[in-house]
Amino acid sequence: MKKIKTLMEMTNPEAEKILEETQMAIIPLGSVEQHGSHLPLGTDYYAAESFAKRIVSKTGGLLVDFAPFGVTPLHMGFKGTVTLRSETMISLMTDIVSSLCRHGAKKIVFINWHERNLPAIEIATENSQNEFEEIKILIVHAHFIAKEKYGKIVGLTHGGELEILPVLADRPELVHLELATDPSPIQKGQKSDKFRRDPSIYYIPKDVRSMYKTGWYGKINDTSDERIKEVMNGTSSEAARRIKEFFKI
Ligand SMILES: [Zn+2]
């Protein structure tokens, strides 16, 4: 993959050229929260950014840095976690989209890798679409694409294999697999994740320790280079395919 620059790394003429050619902006969203002793606090943002870079290399568009923070009160029991209020996240998102629209962006894609960002993302999307009638926004939950395609054995678990691979892909020095020695019981974790993801009846966990006491759980089966490549390429290709389909590009 050729090096993809983010907006902050570009000059103004570079950014202008991409916006003129594509009218598209791609924005990664994650969070800063504990991920056990083996993964960095920035895991969710790093994952969102790693997938976003690969997606941009297939779809084109301007890769816009977002604040690394997200909405994550449930992880505040662990020091180092930093949460935004949903209101703050909504304001940040709508201000960023509004700036991009004023510069000609008409297609906006959010690449998210943090479940509790969802309510803020949906409200910000509706607000922005109401403010700028000519724009279309697509929401991509990369973690759910990875889960659908590659989670049959390992599932989508906090701190488990599907969260390890995207960090290994671009920032292997931040992963400490030798410290992944204290996963919480897998069945309890699976049961509570299943319940909170149920679309009909669900609850919003207040403290993640009620679901997984040590802050993470999950299987770590395969972290080989082949597996990293497979999951990164497969997930970003599927996202890119659906983005192109939606925007007819
Ligand atoms: Zn995570």
Structural account:
- With 249 residues, the chain is α/β, with parallel strands linked by helices.
- The chain has a single domain (7-226), classed as 3-Layer(aba) Sandwich (Rossmann fold).
- It has eight helices and four strands; from the N terminus they run αβαβαβαβαααα.
- It has helices at 12-22, 43-59, 86-102, 118-131, 142-150, 161-170, 186-197, 225-247; strands at residues 24-29, 62-63, 107-112, 136-141.
- The chain has a four-stranded parallel β-sheet, with helices on both faces.
- Helix 2 links the parallel strand 1 and strand 2.
- The radius of gyration is 18 Å and the shape is globular.
- The model has no long low-confidence stretch (mean pLDDT 97).
- The site of zinc ion has 5 residues, from helix 2.
